[in-house]
Amino acid sequence: MACLVGVSSQMTSDAASKTEQENRRQAQKTSQLVLPWDESFTFTHESASVILTEYRTEMAFYCPSVVIPLDMTVPELQQKSPLLLGAVQMVTCIDDAIRKKRMTDQFLEHVSRSIVKKRQSSLDILQAILVCISWYHLLPEPEAQLSIILHLGLAMLRRLGLHRRPNPSGGKLPQSCERDNAPTTDERRAYLGCFYTTCVAAICVKDMDPLRYTSYTEECCRVLEELQEYPTDMCLVQLSRLNRMAHKIVQILPFDSYNQPHICSSDSIQTCVKALGAELRHLKPSSAHDRIQDSILALQYHSLELLLYESALEDHSSKSDRSSTGVHYDILHSSLASAKAFFSTFSSLAPQYFLYLPYSVYQQYYHAVDSLSKFLLLAWKERDQIDTRITMDVATAVNMFIAKAKEAVQLLNHEESSLCAEEILHQLIARVRAFEELHEARLAGVESYDIDRGAASRNSIRDATFALPHDMSWQFLDSE
Q1: Any one cellular component term from GO for this entry (predicted)?
Q2: How many other C-beta atoms lie within 10 A of the C-beta of residue 426?
Q3: Cβ neighbours for 418, distance < 8 A, ≥ 6 positions apart
Q4: 20 to 30 Å CA-CA from 379: which of 202, 238, 337, 465?
């Protein structure tokens, strides 16, 4: 009898425990997840888990600077990093354009108020900003806003003291933002994410200077490389080490973002290009594009090449004399070949990746089209010197992008939830078409200039050979 009572008691206890667990799971499914910046935005934990799973499957490996462990649940992430969880929901949920616009506005207002007015400091805020920047094209925000968001991220990076090694406490009281212990791997990833993002902005947008690659940057790369806690860590390390060249290349530009002369004088520009080109080739990633990360690395490498050649050609074309025409032609040939390699790599991307590619890839594409336009204008002026087999025209590059976007649209389910995604892709197409229109305007300007210059030359000969009375010019008569 006692045994039966004991077994019955145990069964009752197990049943109660299972019932309690089931009730807890049911409560989590129906309970509301409130976004940190607006209590009117709610998700059930079940729907939030679905969105988080989609983020991990489709997007997370594009943002190696922010890692969310696979075993971390929505309640755990909400407890540890509520703003990061909200940012993930914001960029991943693209089924309602109106709601997404409201979510984005509230998110940016909350972040800016937290950093500027409330002076809050947390890794959660910085990681949320990095996620926001990584998929900026999925957000209904103007391009000019991106620079502001990035500067807010850099302000948070410095406030947390993550941009350098912790200062030793001996001899001087530490500031409130400085840390006494070694940075965590999450903090190192966030720092490298900021470093990489500023490099892309310096290369593609040219509205800020990149962070310097310091011994601390290399230390963060080495730590992540040795530990390799996550598969994406090596991609972040490779991107960071490759972009050590960004700051060096920017130094050969005629002027920086503040319109101040750079270190490398115009007389030594060709020497700088040769040395930096050799150093960049030493960092070139392997040619294998078996993974999407390999293709992203290759695109980053070609972007740095384009920046180097663009800087050299802009500096060279600003001079009235061209004593180094042979070197000039060599650089122009290399620039056209590098542009073609960029677009060839981009064409190899599978269309199913297109929508969720990080915004840095789109920035690099726009920069590549813009650079190609400038190179072709120089080649047009010297068309008898350029090998047409090593280049492509702007229209071909633009149509390649459009074809990829259309393939991506066809892969979407033609339901109401895909309309927002299609609109995002159409906006990307409109942006790249704008660069094609810019190229046509540039080309028309160059052709018009050449026609005017040729007419002026002919009129000068006629003025000298057949002088008109009263110092009149043939140019005046031709204009009538």
Answers
A1: nucleus
A2: 13
A3: 95, 412
A4: 202
* Unique residue bearing structure tokens 């297109």: 354
* Residue 416 DSSP code: G
Q: For residues 313 and 375, is the Cβ–Cβ distance under 8 A?
A: yes
Position 39 scores a pLDDT of 64
Mean pLDDT check: name the lowest of 64-78, 109-123, 269-283.
Answer: 269-283
Residue tagged 């001899």 (tokens) = 171
Query: In whole angstroms, what is the distance from residue 359 CA to residue 192 CA?
Result: 17
Which residues does residue 35 pair with via DSSP β-bridges, in sequence order? 38
More confident residue, 382 or 129: 129
Residues 48-71: b if buried by 16+ CB within 10 A, e if exposed: bbebbeebbeebbbbbbbbbbeee
Question: Which range among 54-68, 112-126, 148-162, 172-186 shows the weakest confidence by mean pLDDT?
Answer: 172-186
How far is residue 63 from each of residues 226, 418, 447, 451, measured CA to CA in Å? 20, 23, 44, 50
Q: In which band, very low, low, confident or very high, does the pLDDT at 249 lie, cut at 50, 70 and 90?
A: confident
Return the structure tokens found at 304: 């740095």
Rounded Cα distance between 58 and 357, Å, is: 9
CA dihedral 12, 17, 23, 29 (to 10 degrees): -150
φ/ψ region of 256 (left if φ > 0, alpha if ψ in -120 to 50, else beta) reads: beta
Distance CA 440, CA 369 (A): 12
The DSSP-derived string for 141-155 is: --HHHHHHHHHHHHH
